[in-house]
Amino acid sequence: MPPVSRFLPCLSWLKVYRRDDFPADLLASIIVTIMLIPQSLAYAMLAGLPPQVGLYASVLPLVGYALFGSSRTLAVGPVAVVSLMTAAAVSQVAVPGSPDYLAAAVALAFLSGLFLVLIGIARLGFLANLLSHPVINGFIGASAIVIAASQLKHILGIDADGHSLLALGRSLAGQVTAAHLPTLIIGTASIVFLFWVRKQLKPRLITAGMNARLADVLVKAGPVAAVIVATAAVGLFALAADGVRIVGDIPQGLPPLTLPPVDAPLWADLLPAAILISVVGFVESVSVAQSLAAKRRQSIDPNQELVGLGAANIASGVSGGYPVTGGFARSVVNFDAGARTPLAGVLTAGMIALTAVFLTPLFFHLPNAVLAATIIVAVLSLVDLGAMKRTWDYSKSDFAAMAATILLVLTAGVEAGIIAGMIVSIALYLWRTSRPHMAVVGQVAGTEHFRNVDRHAVVESPTVLTIRVDESLYFANTRYLEDAIGRQVAARPEIRHVVLMCPAVNFIDASALESLEMIADRLKAAGTTLHLSEIKGPVMDRLKRSPFFDHVDGEVFLTQHDAMAALDPETTAQADAGQRPKTPAAARARPEAAE
Amino acid sequence: MPPVSRFLPCLSWLKVYRRDDFPADLLASIIVTIMLIPQSLAYAMLAGLPPQVGLYASVLPLVGYALFGSSRTLAVGPVAVVSLMTAAAVSQVAVPGSPDYLAAAVALAFLSGLFLVLIGIARLGFLANLLSHPVINGFIGASAIVIAASQLKHILGIDADGHSLLALGRSLAGQVTAAHLPTLIIGTASIVFLFWVRKQLKPRLITAGMNARLADVLVKAGPVAAVIVATAAVGLFALAADGVRIVGDIPQGLPPLTLPPVDAPLWADLLPAAILISVVGFVESVSVAQSLAAKRRQSIDPNQELVGLGAANIASGVSGGYPVTGGFARSVVNFDAGARTPLAGVLTAGMIALTAVFLTPLFFHLPNAVLAATIIVAVLSLVDLGAMKRTWDYSKSDFAAMAATILLVLTAGVEAGIIAGMIVSIALYLWRTSRPHMAVVGQVAGTEHFRNVDRHAVVESPTVLTIRVDESLYFANTRYLEDAIGRQVAARPEIRHVVLMCPAVNFIDASALESLEMIADRLKAAGTTLHLSEIKGPVMDRLKRSPFFDHVDGEVFLTQHDAMAALDPETTAQADAGQRPKTPAAARARPEAAE
Questions:
Q1: CA angle, A546 then A548 then A549, to 5°
Q2: Cα(A224)–Cα(B16) distance, integer angstroms
Q3: DSSP per-residue string spanning A27-96
Q4: What is the dihedral of CA B593, A289, A215, A26, to 10 degrees?
Q5: Contacts of B189 (CB under 8 A, 6+ apart)
Q6: What burial letters (b/e) apply to B502-538, b meaning 16+ CB within 10 Å?
Q7: Of A46, A169, B109, B532, whose CB count within 10 A is highest?
Q8: pLDDT tens, B343-386?
Q9: What is the band of A386 on the pLDDT scale with cuts at 50, 70, 90?
Q10: How many CB atoms lie within 10 A of CB A41?
Q11: What is the pLDDT of residue A123?
């Protein structure tokens, strides 16, 4: 890519923009706008912010992403999990509903944007990889439950708060008897309707002969229908006077562009949350972008995605919005509706801006309970018990990381949860690689293959011990290697040569190098020689640059068969000729190291 | 091992103790005692404690280790680095010289002992592996410099303090003009003498016909000679009256056995330091123990070592001592002097106890400057610039972890240094494995071998892309894999099959499994099929337990050659027949992924 379009990916699609791309982009943008309006209002409410803030976060951020993002079809804006994280972070530094609360949310978007742009420029996108899939799935599932629980107060028409399930439950339980009946009816009816649309409507439309794609788009418009009907009903029957809480007055227009004031103590308080929100938002967004790009054989540059999302958040921070990221459902709708370029996003932004300027009076009678219902129905689809079961079946350690995340999100809050998940998964990975799989191997009679003595009837030399290591050697597993070799050699005094077979050793770090030197020295002191076999090219290149071969008297053999032929020609000749050992190797005394 | 001797390893050597083992153990214990007395006094001074505390820490802890430790020849007691760490930790909770300071040091030993025993019983010894060798070397080297600097005040006869080099330097610089001349002469003379003993005496003795081992032992006794001469000189010339600071009155006897009072806030303050001291002490100690054990084909159980060192520290905590661990120099002396069993340690303990009871008046005129000189000369031998150079040459990332450790020890203190080193080395390891080595491979004409297309002239199929991955697949590198495959396939539209060749993939975690499913789905959407080849047995077993093969339409081939023969029989037949491609594979357009 030429330098300029590398930093401004929009140039690459603007240059080749064709007249017939426009109708496709326009249609997609209309559909996404219809979907995005109720979502923006609802997620702003979830974040504890006035509804118009959701609209503001759906204007300039979309333009920012269109200029700098690398996905052609990603649709950015407020999303559920990031809204919850915003609420959790901002309510720690300001009172919900206060001007400070709004200012902190705006500052959070700006900070998060700066952070994303910085790590994008520094090409540190790989940091996001530290979140494993089970941790993300557990985090999103548990967050969905906390989000749904946090919206129950709107369905019940009562006040309650708390950012963990425990706190919320306690708060709700205390007031459930004070539930407001008309609100409860509106909320429950909306939930039932939205679930029906999601589960039942699409198959019926298709049975009735409708095109599957169109049916899908209609289903996605369900929340809009609920909003229109409920707003009309509340308006017509003046239910607000009966105590049904409504959105009420929304200022018309867009806030002026302004840099958030530099408030060092506030920024310092918000920084950890900004980092977490950035990472979670990026991980969510980039996987959607990659899935969509792959379908059209396009590709995504993760570091450019960081810059794109960063630009979107900076745009949000200077235009009165709050943290945004790429949304899964809306991006799929955008893609399926035929969007070809990010111009669709710019068009969506324009329509949302028009909405904010002209249409907000229409939302006056919109009941909060309907917004809460759309949130509940949207997030509960994120709870994936099947994924938990699959993770449990596949890997207990992955499940442990997931369980720690879920448990902490539910009991201690979203931030504690995601951090715990990250620490547990890193710790378990280190633990796993710190106990590498090793096998004592012998020759398969009549071949030049070497296999685990515990699994196969192979020929083993009485004087040469060969250990195959199935892991790269690094600081966390060198002591394990020392122990294993030490135990084997201590148990078999007749051993004169130890061969370390390294076909799966992808690197040897400085600690492991010292360990190997130490092992060689110790073996030498006990009258035994250390050899290596089947070392990979790049690993060997490094070893040659080190004083390793000054310590090691033994040789490096290209193949394990070469090693055996040199160190125990007699046994090897027998094995080559296909003679099996008299006593099977597995019957001999051997310590437990040969796992 | 039978259950009882498993928890009390002393039973296994006591059972077979022979009469002629005793003279060997006794001789070794006498030599170690002579070496340990000045060290104990000096290291207690380094820890900011009264000199007798060093003696107390050299009595019961030795017995505790003899009962529970698994090394036959390790000699425990106060050591330099742990003494420095003790000073750093305890001076944060109490004023040096106060009774609280002593009480906190004793509590620290007790806590550290409890922690070591607990992780030993829980078999969590692998935690210590998170300290890489370069981090340990950097830590010890930098600590040695801080220790040496902290002793300069005793050589100069002035007051100064601080636990980082910066603080110390500032404190010393302010008072260097107030240096006390007689003290400076004693201190400098001792340093020169001790360096001379270390560097010159041994070769001269050997040239004069002395046995090398005996020469070694004599050299180790250098500090005792310095202590005796200096004490006699200060006593005879009454230099204490001139202002030379001396050890002075040391209470005769041993403190009564007593549990340290449970002081929850103090213990909570000390716990992080206790954990760090335990880990550092363990790492130091176990590597000495393993080296010595290997020389006699004995073996060490790291978890039992934790229990042994834990017992030693608990013993120190109930007998008025401070944290201890296995010392390098004294263990080597013990081994070389012929110690056969831990009884040598018990005998040493008895002799130190007798010293504490009867001989302390002899130390009255011992000048602090001589103790400081022994510390300085001992620790400066730990600064290993060669190791730094070797690490730099071998691996820049290992060097980065080492440099971070050194920098932080020197500027921010020992605890910050070791924690920074641990974080940097883990982060760099994750970074390294997050960018696995991958190669696009092709067939070596005339063979069934497959090699990197960028390094070898190989036959590549126009429709089948084979990527070999040289790393286990886990959460931190799955996105890299997705990117790499996505880029390759996007760049070569004629590709119909992608084969992932996995001979060095030792495990696939749940994140990587999902990624592979996602890659398969994306490839399918683009009209391409994902296949696997050369998967290891245990990895395949796991895959079979998952719904992976519901996603993947492709096949799993036992060998890469099978895969090519099935997916592109024509090209493979040509390659088998030894026909080289018309255009060399490397000449074709290919994105940068094939590193």
A1: 115
A2: 86
A3: HHHHHHHHHHHHHHHHHHHHTTS-HHHHHHTTTHHHHHHHHH-S-SS--EE--HHHHHHHHHHHTTTS-T
A4: -110
A5: none
A6: bbbbbbbbbbbbbbbbbbbbbbbebebbbbbbbbbee
A7: B109
A8: 999 999 999 999 999 999 999 999 999 999 999 998 888 888 88
A9: confident
A10: 29
A11: 84
CB pairs under 8 A between A and B: 201
| Shortest distance, CA B545 to any CA of chain A (angstroms) | 7
Q: How far is residue B373's CA from residue B189's CA, in Å, rounded to a whole number?
A: 9
As a whole number of angstroms, the distance between CA A446 and CA B411 comes to 63
Q: What pTM value is reported for the model?
A: 0.78
**Does the pLDDT value for residue B591 go beyond 50?**
no
Q: State the amino acid at position B226 in one-letter form.
A: A
Q: Which residues of B touch A126 (CB under 8 A)?
A: 431, 434-435, 476, 479-480
**B477/A contact by beta carbon, under 8 A:** yes
Residue A116 phi/psi, 5-degree rounding, is -60, -45
In the structure encoding, which two tokens stand for residue A4, read together?
């300029």
In terms of DSSP bridges, do strands A450-452 and A438-443 run parallel, antiparallel, or are they unpaired? antiparallel
pLDDT, tens digit, 9 for 90 and up, residues A197-222:
988 888 888 888 888 878 877 888 88
φ and ψ at residue A532, rounded to 5 degrees: -125, 150
Q: Does A487 touch chain B (CB under 8 A)?
A: yes
- Determine contact, residues B157/B179, Cβ cutoff 8 Å: yes
Please give the Cα distance from A393 to A395 (Å, whole number): 6
pLDDT tens by residue, A251-270: 998 988 989 888 889 999 99
Taking a C-beta distance cutoff of 8 angstroms, is the pair A66, A10 a contact? Answer: yes
**B394 shares contact with chain A (CB less than 8 Å):** yes
DSSP A239-250: GGGGT--B----
In this predicted model, what pLDDT tens digit does every residue of B38-96 receive, in sequence order?
A: 899 999 999 999 999 999 999 999 999 999 998 889 999 999 999 999 999 999 999 98
A493 exposed, middle or buried (CB, 10 Å; 0-12, 13-18, 19+)? exposed
How large is the average pLDDT for residues B244-251?
90
| Residue pointed to by tokens 């020890």 | B409
CB-CB neighbors (< 8 A) of A503 in chain B = 503-504
Looking at residue B554, its amino acid is G
> How confident is the model over A518-542, as pLDDT tens digits?
889 888 888 899 999 989 888 898 8
Mean pLDDT score across all residues of chain A: 88
B541/A contact by beta carbon, under 8 A:
no
Model confidence at B187, pLDDT cuts 50, 70, 90, reads very high
Cα A512 to chain center, whole Å?
32
Specify the domain boundaries for CATH 3.30.750.24 within chain A: 438-587
Q: What is d(CA B329, CA A359) in angstroms, rounded to the nearest whole number?
A: 82
* Residues of chain B positioned with their CB less than 8 A from the CB of A430: 130, 426, 429
- Integer Cα distance of A377 and B361 in angstroms: 83
Smallest Cα distance from A210 to chain B, Å: 24
3 state DSSP class of B131: coil
Q: Please give the CATH number for the structural domain made up of B438-587.
A: 3.30.750.24
A371 Cβ neighbours under 8 A, 6+ residues apart: A38, A41, A42, A45, A51, A154, A227, A247
Which residues, in sequence order, are bridge partners of residue A441? A452
pLDDT at B103: 95
Amino acid at B106: V
The three-class DSSP label of residue A112 is helix
Chain A interface disruption, residue of B388, B389, B394, most A CBs within 10 A: B394
Contact B557, B531 (CB under 8 A): yes
